[in-house]
């Protein structure tokens, strides 16, 4: 890359960054609870998430969460941070979304396992259905760690009022 090209890119970034930053909003916009199943090991999964606002556009959401897997084998734990792109506005009846992120996962007796805890990539695909003005039902699939864990959830989310 030539020095002139680098300067052009730097100037372009400085011109675009304020507009993108003006659209970014970090705040607690809602939370969700969910229950589901991990199809690989049959565990029941229970979790919660936070909607911490959006990046660059109201459709790109930041969502940290935590979950626990119980009943079959050792209990499992995961903490996640994901970015979700919502394909429609929050006011729609159905809101499909797609996202990705990272999960820090572990299990009971993690200290005795050299591969524990582990960081895994996540892929999220789901949709929300309007239940009330600030409540939505959700159905979500999450693949974790090169799809070694495939999870399906049903839950309820809240949204800050419009």
Integer tally of domains = 1
Mean pLDDT: 86
Corresponding CATH architecture:
Beta Barrel
Q: Total helix count?
A: 1
Which ranges are low-confidence, i.e. pLDDT below 50, for 5 or more consecutive residues?
none
Strand order of the largest sheet: 1-2-3-4-5-6-7-8
User: What is the CA-CA span between the terminal residues?
Assistant: 46 Å
| Beta-strand content estimate | over 45%
* Structural class label: mainly beta
The number of strands is 8
Report helical residue fraction. Answer: 10-25%
Q: What is the global morphology?
A: flat
Write structural notes for this entry:
With 162 residues, this protein is mainly beta. It has one domain: Porin (Beta Barrel), CATH 2.40.160.20. It is 13% helix and 59% strand. It is built from one helix and eight strands. It has one helix at 3-23, and strands spanning 25-38, 44-54, 60-70, 76-86, 94-107, 118-132, 135-144, 149-158. Strands 1-2-3-4-5-6-7-8 form an eight-stranded antiparallel beta barrel. A hairpin with a 5-residue loop joins strand 2 (44-54) and strand 3 (60-70).
Short characterization:
With 162 residues, this protein is mostly beta strands. The protein has one domain (26-158): Porin (Beta Barrel), CATH 2.40.160.20. It is built from 1 helix and 8 strands, in the order H-E-E-E-E-E-E-E-E.
Features:
Porin, single chain, 8 strands, eight-stranded antiparallel beta barrel, mainly beta, 1 helix, 59% strand, 162 residues
């Amino acid at each position: 890359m030539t020095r002139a090209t680098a300067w052009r890119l730097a100037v372009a970034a400085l011109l675009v960054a304020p507009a993108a930053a003006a659209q970014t909003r970090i705040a607690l916009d809602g939370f969700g609870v969910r229950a589901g199943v991990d199809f690989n090991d049959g565990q029941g999964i229970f979790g919660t998430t936070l909607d911490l606002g959006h990046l660059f556009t109201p459709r790109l959401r930041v969502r940290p969460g935590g979950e626990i897997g119980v009943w079959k084998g050792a209990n499992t734990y995961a903490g996640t941070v994901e970015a979700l792109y919502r394909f429609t506005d929050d006011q729609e009846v159905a809101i499909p979304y797609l996202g990705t992120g990272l999960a820090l996962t572990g299990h009971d007796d993690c200290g005795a396992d050299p591969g524990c805890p582990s960081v895994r990539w996540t892929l999220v695909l789901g949709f929300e259905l309007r239940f009330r003005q600030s409540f939505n039902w959700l159905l979500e699939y999450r693949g974790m760690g090169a799809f070694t864990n495939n999870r399906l959830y049903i839950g309820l989310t809240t949204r800050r009022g419009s």
